[in-house]
Predict the structure.
Amino acid sequence: MTDFSGTTGLIFNEPLLWEKGRKGRTGMSLPRRDVGTYALDESLCGDGPDFPDLSEPEVARHYVRLSQWNFGVDSGLYPLGSCTMKYNPKLNEKMASLQGFTGAHPLLPAELSQGALRLMFELERLLAEITGMDAVSLQPAAGAHGELAGMLIIHAYHKSNGAARSKIIVPDTAHGTNPASAALCGYKPVAVKSNEQGVLSPEAVAEIMDSETAGIMITNPNTLGLFERSIREIAEIVHKKGGLVYGDGANMNAVMGIVRMGDIGVDVQHLNLHKTFSTPHGGGGPGAGPVCVKKNLEKFLPVPRIIENHGAYSLSYDSAESIGKIHAFYGNFGVMIKAYGYILSMGAESLKKASQLAVLNANYIKAKLKDVFHLAYDQPCMHECVFSDKLQKQNGVTTLDIAKRLIDYGFHPPTVYFPLVVSGSIMIEPTETESKEDIDQFVEACKAVVAEAKENPELLHAAPTRTKVRRLDETNATRHPCLTG
Ligand SMILES: *Cc1c(COP(=O)(O)O)cnc(C)c1O
């Protein structure tokens, strides 16, 4: 195992600052006092805040040690399928921290916020261009929030046509947020099965699409990493029956600059700026899930809209049929700055190249590992590939064991047990970030784990062994979280 970047003994235990502190210790010195002292009125002071007394190195080491318990894309390959854990250029963090942006207040009048409004306006235009849509709202704070906005828009559209529809078609490969968003809007999600190739067949959709169905939610490429080849035909079937097509754009990293969902029948689509457009998101936020629509749905977008008139930008609440406001102020502005910086610094050609490399890397991994892991659908993939534990199960080794053992080799595990249509799935998304050498090292680690699964399954059941904490009791950790370390 010596060739891998796995963890070593240099991971420190670290208590809480309160347990570490000693009365009277300090991390700073103040200049000599040159005014007199006055006794405080003790009745006003109480006991004072319960801050521990610490020296400067104690504080520095505390936080450095805690940071070393963590794993991020800045530490190594993070092949978490469906999440697009790619490297985000630090330049965009720098842009988001420019003083004019960090000092801006959302309550400033439009006349004093022209730069911020222009950035948002132009980002909307860029995202419309990338998706092939006509209008965009940046308000939603995440992919799921964008889905909710999209569902509300679909609901408003049918309402404006005087038709109340009750169902939404959702493929069996969909992310869990899809049926949840539909249900939040009062729709009944109706599952449609993918075919043996792992994609939707027009016939299966035609069979259940009726005048009670408001539309379909399609993720493209889907969560098996496969392109929904029949999307045009499916869109036609749905449109003919008066429904709309929702595009889940979380997997946009595979098709930027190559396929525009607006050109192939999608009416509403969300993007995950925190997946595709340069916002780190391992810690859970903030993100942004802009919702992009075709012209006929623009009037339903959330307010305020950003308006441009002869180079002057303003906010308009003038939209009688809008679904209303769905976020405080205008959404997560910092994430928008990073996306804007990313798109402009990459340019059209490089965005396309990023997608091409993401797809190339995933296909390379698929080809390298398909002899050792069972491949669920053996065909060219997009930005991620899905294996399963079918072969290793014969030795009593499961996907979870494999994922935990990969940690010992210094890799963040892939996504496990999702998508649900593949039993024991192992979903690998390398992204465009990784070099061939890094991917080869990951492949070798997977092969080493698979060899261990055959020769010494017990090793995998005990994994991870080289980490600060071993295998957690996940149920107990959720029900009775211990938050003090
Ligand atoms: C991540 C993801 C979502 C949800 O996005 P969040 O930003 O996590 O709310 C929806 N669909 C797919 C396919 C995803 O991968």
About this structure: The mean pLDDT is 94. The first strand starts at residue 135 and ends at 137. DSSP finds 17 helices and 13 strands in the chain.
